[in-house]
Design brief:
alpha+beta, eight-stranded mixed β-sheet, seven-stranded mixed β-sheet, globular
Length: about 450
């Protein structure tokens, strides 16, 4: 097949991994193409604000488009090597920290410089919190966090898009059908039955494209391993309950191992004064949360996720996660919300019971229901134990009025075998970001893009 056009570099996906690859390569004389399944950033923002937008546009706009699944997220930059991905498997922690600082500088340059960094002060308060957490069998991992906010994050992504305009080719609203490899060498990609050729291929499909990516690399005979699948709930409670933590470190990363099953449980994506939101993964409705720079609610929300790694003979954790999420969709027509007290009493929540509660839900469209009909007993027991432990650090967290939204699932469970340059067994074929199973957040996804961009430049002698 003859190529429609030939590029030096083709990047699949315009999430943070793809964008930061492009930022490194722009203005170097290389011809670059980014192909993005979803809308461009301004169209994404317009769609998110348009109450009359078509349902199909609303659906795909949540997790794909310029900026990826994190475009409308809380915009937290976790400036640590301790969590947010597995890049320290491919480089030293010192090198990773240096690149994280570089990524932070880039975000600042494009509009984030005025946003506060938490964790630089009150070191003694943090140590006291760690001691208190340890007494409750919790591990508190402090981190420096720059909170951009959903609104500022969207503006930064727009600024990055404007900077790249005219320097690279961008195809939005365009899905890559297949990756083409011939005689062990990258040839390019197929888009609408046309070949776009390249010398370097950077695959950064994000969570939305993870299942497609698994199918493509499987056909190429590349080795995949299964990560743990993270399934749980989003918790919402009055913001003052967690203020002793969030005022100091903003996001508390707490790790717990359950007494019942010895499962690893963690808090994730804490949003002080934030909002619980619906996330649409290709028609599958799950829950997430975010907070703004210039708008507040009365509540704080965060996820409690149970990590489970499957062994023989099961190798499809993404399907398992989607199966659990689908149960919630079947029973509740989407996201289900339940008071913790109702869950303990073995009864469903009703609109009346939610209304009688002390926590006003920030996602009023969630369906009151019973999460015990959705989540396995093992997961529910783990979540109960986690809330009991958290209550010792933040009294009130274990309240019967605490709201649980379900389900929250993270689809980044398959990990591709890569070398220390994030390159597959196929020369000049790189795989990065959440969809490749090596990162789990904005900063490490961006860092992966920087790593690949610099490696391509080095190979080109630039």
């Amino acid at each position: 097949m003859n190529a429609v056009k030939t590029y030096d570099v083709i990047i699949i996906g315009a999430g943070p991994a793809g964008i930061f690859t492009a930022l490194e390569l722009a203005d170097t004389g290389l011809s670059i193409l980014i192909v993005e399944k979803g809308q461009d950033i301004r169209e994404r923002i317009a769609t998110s604000r348009n109450k009359n937008a078509l349902p199909k546009d609303k659906v795909r706009n949540v997790v794909c488009g310029w900026g990826g699944a994190g475009a409308f997220s809380d915009g937290k930059l976790t400036l640590t090597t301790e969590y947010g991905g597995n890049l320290d498997d491919y480089m030293s922690k010192a090198e990773l920290m240096e690149k994280i600082a570089y990524v932070d500088d880039v975000y600042c340059r494009f509009g984030g410089a005025d946003r506060k960094v938490y964790g630089d002060e009150n070191k003694e308060c943090i140590r006291q919190m760690q001691r208190k957490a340890a007494a409750a069998d919790l591990r508190l991992i402090p981190a420096r966090i720059r909170h951009l906010g959903t609104d500022v994050n969207a503006q930064i992504l727009t600024n990055m898009r404007d900077f790249l305009d005219g320097k690279i080719d961008i195809m939005a609203d365009t899905a890559v059908d297949h990756i083409v490899v011939e005689d062990g060498q990258v040839r390019g990609v197929i888009i609408a039955d046309q070949l776009y050729a390249c010398r370097y291929l950077v695959c950064a499909p994000g969570r939305e494209g993870s299942e497609w990516f698994v199918g493509e690399v499987d056909k190429l005979g590349l080795k995949l391993t299964s990560n743990a699948v993270d399934i749980g709930v989003r918790v919402e409670m009055p913001a003052e309950i967690l203020e002793t933590i969030t005022d100091i470190v903003y996001e508390s990363k707490l790790i717990y191992f359950s007494k019942s099953f010895d499962d690893r449980i963690r808090t994730f994506c804490m949003n002080p004064y934030g909002f619980v939101v619906e996330e649409n993964n290709d028609g599958l409705l799950t829950v997430n949360g975010h907070s703004y720079a210039h708008k507040r609610s009365e509540n704080t929300n965060f996820a409690i996720l149970v990590s489970k790694k499957f062994t023989e003979p099961f190798h499809e954790p993404i399907k398992y996660g989607k199966y659990i999420a689908n149960l919630a969709n079947i029973l509740g027509g989407g996201v289900i919300v339940q008071r913790f007290g109702d869950l303990l009493d073995g009864r469903r929540s009703t609109p009346e019971r939610i209304l009688r509660g002390l926590v006003r839900p920030t996602m009023p469209d969630a369906t009151p229901g019973d999460l015990s009909l959705v989540l396995p007993y093992r997961h529910l027991q783990d979540i109960k134990e986690m809330l009991e432990a958290l209550d010792k650090v933040a009294p009130g967290a274990n309240s019967r009025h605490t709201l649980l939204y379900g389900v929250e699932v993270k689809f980044y469970s398959n990990r591709l075998e890569l070398n220390h340059k994030l390159e597959t067994k196929i020369p000049n074929f790189f795989a990065i970001g959440d969809g490749a199973g090596i990162t789990r957040g904005l900063v490490q996804a961006s860092t992966a893009g920087v790593t690949v961009g610099k490696e391509i430049l080095e190979r080109e002698g630039r």
